[in-house]
Structures are given as C-alpha cells and as structure tokens.
Amino acid sequence: MRSSPPDIASLDGRKVALWGWGREGRAAYRAIRARLPALPLTLFCSTAEAVEATALHDANLVAETDVSAPTLSAFDIVVKSPGISPYKPEAVAAAQAGTRFIGGTALWFAEHAGVDGVAANTICVTGTKGKSTTTALLAHLLRAGGHVTALAGNIGLPLLEALEPDIAPEFWAIELSSYQTGDVAGSGVRPQVAIALNIFPEHLDWHGSHERYVEDKLRLITQARPRTAVLNANDPRLAQLGASLTDSEVRWFGRADGWHLRGDDLYRGDAFVMDTRALPLPGRHNRGNLCAVLTAIEALGLDAAPLAPHAASFRPLPHRLQTIGTRDGITYVNDSISTTPHASLAALECFASRRVAILIGGHDRGLPWEDFAEAMHTHAPLSIVTMGQNGPRIHALLAPLAAQAGFVLGEAGDLADAMAQAKSALGGEGVVLLSPGAPSFGPYRDYVARGRHFAELAGFDPEMISTIPGLGVA
C-alpha cells in the first residue's frame, strides 16, 4: 500500500467505507461513484441517515449504524468526514490495526498532484480567525484581475463537489479548517501557497488539547510543505515557526518590508497604497488579512498592487460581523461564526465607539474565558448577556467585575431571552452584537441556523443573510 493516500481510481479493489453523511460525506460518495460505480461501499452513519442512504437504491452501498473499532478495522480505507475526530478511541484502535483514515480533501489533492508533487495554483488558507473572509477576498481579487478562480473548501463548497468543474479554474482559493489541514499534509501533494493567519485556542473537543490543535492546524505548513508559506509576522507562534522552515519559501505579511498596515493605511514596504477604513471588511483584523491576500498573490507571480483597490467591491460574508439592519434605534450585528473568546473580543473592538450589548455563550468546549474577562476591566461594553451551556461558567467569571468595570451583566435562558435583555439594557440606542465565542451545538444545527434565528428574532428575513457570494468557479 502506498505511503500517501490514494486517488479515487486506486480505491478499486480495496475495502472502502465512508464515515459521515453530511455534505462532505455525500460529496465523497458522489465523487467515488462517478469513477467507480461498482465499488462496494459501507456507510457508517446515524439511523436517520441510513434511511436517506437506502433511498439512493445503490445495490453496492450498505449503511451501518454500529461504529466501533472492530467494524472500522474491517476496512482498508475509511473516508472520514471532517467533523469526525481521528482521535476518537474507535478510530485510534482501527488505525493501529491497519485501517487508513483519509478525508475528501486528501482525495482531491491526490487527484491534482502535479509531476513535481505540487498541486498547481492552489492557495490554501487556514487560521483560527478570519480564514473564510480571507479566502473569499483572495478569490475576489484574483477574479478582479481577470483570473478564473475556484472558491471552495471549508467555506461552504466541499472540494470533491468541485472535482470536475465545467470551467477549468486558473487558481484554487481553498479554505481549510484544522479538521482538514492534516488531509493535505497526509496527501503527499504540496500546495503551491499556504497562508496561516493566526493561532488561538479552538476545537479542543475535536483535537483533545490546545497543543494538539496547534500542531494539527500548523500541519498545513510544517508537514504539507507548501512551495511558499505566507505567515503573519505579528503572531508569536507563526513568527517562531517561520524561522524553522526549510522546505518552503517564507513570505511575511504584517512586517515593514512587505504588505502591512500603518494605522489604517495599507503599505507595501515604504510605499503607501490606500486607506483601508472604507473597505467592506469587518474588523481591523480582516483589513490586516488583506495583507495576507496580497502577499499570496505576489507569491503566485502576479502584481498585487493594482488589485488592492478592488477590495472596495468585496461583498462581506454572512454571519461574520454582518450588520443585518436597524430597528427602533437598535442595530443588529450577526457574528454567529464567532466560536472563540478571542473572536468575541475582536468583534467588540470593531464597535468600541458605540453603545453595545454583546451576547456570548453556547456549547461548552472547555475554552478559557479568562483573557476575555481580563479585557473587560478596561474595554467592557455597556452590557454583556451570557447564554447557552457555558453561559453560567462565563457569568460566574464576569460577575465580580460587573460593578467595578461598569457594565450590565445578564444571564439568559435562550437567544430570545438574551436579545430581550440586551435591548432593554440599550434603552433604544446602540448595537445588539451576537458574537457568542462558542459553537451553536445543542439548540442549533450550526452557526448558520443560530444566525438566521437571530435575524428572525430581530425582525429581519433570515433568507436574505445566509448566501455566501462567489462560491464555485468564476
């Protein structure tokens, strides 16, 4: 068996299973079936998903709801959906028994291996915060320069759904979560360019520890060995990492000799390029990530400076510091994508001059909120309302600070209650900011459903806020 994951054709003759039947799992199934219509496949999934799979009337597909080490160990290869952790005990045991776990991202990269081991014109973007906006902005600027570009990956279009696009893209702008970076690293195929934006604690339930999260996230750089690594000079971990890389050319953003911000002004070295304050990029951190995009474009051999002004026509992504509208003096901002306390702090920074009531809390993954609490001593909004599974834990941390720091602290049973308390605290003027700093699991299927419910509760049409512009090839 080859040391690197196989392409789709080489699955033929092996015992193959799919694990997970979300969008990524269904994309893997369709891609495999398009090439290997008779390959026997077993699908590990829930009972409800098994019913859905049975409706496909695929005689070579068997749905199995018993996911255990023995059942997984019966297969040569298991194509796993990104949300399923490879550190689950049954996966670890099966891997030790010889089962290979790969994802759709690995299959896609194996299909795009060049003769030099590089997937030509691929630009992968990862980071704890801002990666979706950065990837979409990258595609936007490349398209503005006349280059047909695919926007895909974790941003909302699985790579295997774009395996054979009708129009061949010149460039691939690919967002990768920490769940997927290992797929690229294990594929044996190098990205042409990889961008790492920042590293903060995240997804501890999937990775098991902060240390493992950092290691897995950075595998896109340390093990995938991109031809060019674009790194944030202002992130301490990335600054340290860059000095140790030997297999990749390193290009820095946020440094005085490259693309960087001076206040709100964009510079290339000592050359002023433009004022970024009017750009439709939510938060100064995303305007800083424009520097990452321009650095990556240069790494592709293109002239980035003429493309920078096209950032003015970028359409912001939904659920990311998204202003939904204003009613009765209250502006509603949907930052449902916020799943870390650092993201909530960045959101508050964007509205530092406004009267703000922030809604925080959700699924408890054990992330520490001490840094958030410390920041509230000097940068507290008018009101903080906690909610969700970790709401009581956050409330207990903030309660001793409320009177001293001068903010109103509330505790809500659900999102509707939280919004009512926030509006009451604002008294008819200000911003209700949904930036939970935690996942939505439990009351909601995902952050999109949470953001849509927020919009609905605020009196706006949720259908108008959820479309990600530019997905696919254009």
Description:
The protein has 474 residues and is α/β, with parallel strands linked by helices. Helices cover 34% and strands 21% of the residues. The chain has helices spanning 23-35, 47-54, 69-73, 89-96, 104-111, 131-144, 181-187, 204-207, 210-217, 219-222, 236-242, 284-299, 341-350, 370-379, 391-405, 415-426, 447-457; strands at 16-19, 41-44, 61-64, 77-80, 100-102, 118-126, 149-153, 171-175, 190-196, 228-232, 249-253, 259-262, 265-268, 271-275, 322-327, 330-334, 356-360, 383-386, 408-411, 430-434, 472-473. It has a 7-stranded mixed sheet with strand order 11-10-9-6-8-7-21, sandwiched between helices. Helix 13 runs parallel beside helix 14 (370-379). The longest helix has 16 residues, at 284-299.
The SS-based structural class is: alpha/beta
Separate helix tally: 17
Poorly predicted parts: none
Q: Sketch the major β-sheet.
A: 7 strands, mixed
Kindly state the mean pLDDT as a whole number?
A: 94
- The shape, in one word, is globular
Distance between the termini: 38 Å
Helical amount:
25-40%
Widest sheet, order of strands: 11-10-9-6-8-7-21
**Count of strand segments:** 21
List keywords for this structure.
21 strands; 474 residues; 17 helices; six-stranded mixed sheet; alpha/beta; seven-stranded mixed sheet
Fold topology:
Elements: E1 16-19, H1 23-35, E2 41-44, H2 47-54, E3 61-64, H3 69-73, E4 77-80, H4 89-96, E5 100-102, H5 104-111, E6 118-126, H6 131-144, E7 149-153, E8 171-175, H7 181-187, E9 190-196, H8 204-207, H9 210-217, H10 219-222, E10 228-232, H11 236-242, E11 249-253, E12 259-262, E13 265-268, E14 271-275, H12 284-299, E15 322-327, E16 330-334, H13 341-350, E17 356-360, H14 370-379, E18 383-386, H15 391-405, E19 408-411, H16 415-426, E20 430-434, H17 447-457, E21 472-473
Parallel strand pairs: 1-2, 1-4, 2-3, 4-5, 6-8, 6-9, 7-8, 9-10, 10-11, 16-20, 17-18, 17-20, 18-19
Antiparallel strand pairs: 7-21, 12-13, 13-14, 15-16
